[in-house]
Amino acid sequence: MSIKINHISQNIIEIIIEKNLLDNSVEEFKQKIANLNLDKNINIILNFKNTKFISSSGIAGIGALYNIIKQHNGRLIFVGLNSKIKSFFKMIKLTKEILIYKTLEEAIEKLKGKKNVEGIGNKK
After folding, report:
1. How far is 54 from 1, CA to CA, in rounded Å?
2. End-to-end CA distance of the chain, in Å?
3. pLDDT at position 20
4. pLDDT attached to residue 1
5. Cβ pair 14, 45 in contact under 8 A
6. CA 23 – CA 60 distance, rounded (Å)
7. What is the DSSP letter of 39?
8. d(Cα 48, Cα 78) in Å, to the nearest integer?
C-alpha cells in the first residue's frame, strides 16, 4: 500500500490511500500519522478515491486517527468513498462523527468557506 501526504494549507492535510487499507498496511498508515506534526484545529481529509476495501484493522487505524484529531479539536473528513465502503461506514455509525464529501475540492471549499460544516450522511 502507498500513502501520500499533501499539505493543502496550514490546517488542512490530505492523506491519500492509494490502495486497499489491509491488515499488513495499517502499520504504515499509523507510522505516517505519527510522523505528522498536528496543530490545534487541524482538518485531515482521508482520500479513498483508489480504495476498494478496508479491513477491520484498517477501521481500527482510522478510529485511532479520529481520536488523535479529536484531541486537537480538529475534523476528520472522508472523500472519494465507493458505495460499499460508504454503506459500511453508515452501518457502523461512523458517519455521525466524520464528515463525508464526494470530492476533495468540495471538502476544501466547505472547510475554507464555512465554520459550520456538514457533509453527506451528517445531516441531522
Report:
1. 12
2. 35
3. 86
4. 57
5. yes
6. 10
7. P
8. 7
CB 74 within 8 A of CB 44: yes
Helix (H, G, I), strand (E, B) or coil at 35: coil
Top-level class of domain 3-113: alpha beta
**Grid coordinates representing 64?**
485511532
- pLDDT at position 124 is 36
C-alpha cell recorded at residue 114 = 464555512
- The x, y and z cell numbers of residue 111, run together, are 472547510
Residue 19 phi/psi, 5-degree rounding, is -135, -160
As averages over each run of 10 residues, the pLDDT of the chain (124 residues) reads 86 91 82 82 93 90 90 93 90 83 94 62 45
The size of the chain, in residues, is 124
User: What is the distance of C-alpha 50 from the center of its chain?
Assistant: 13
Confirm whether pTM is higher than 0.90: no
Query: What are the residue ranges spanned by the domains of the chain?
Result: 3-113
Strand 3-9 to 12-17 pairing: antiparallel
Whether residue 6 contacts residue 44, with contact meaning beta carbons closer than 8 Å, is answered with no
Identify the CA nearest to 72 among candidates 35, 43, 100, 114. Answer: 43
Q: Amino acid identity, residue 1?
A: M
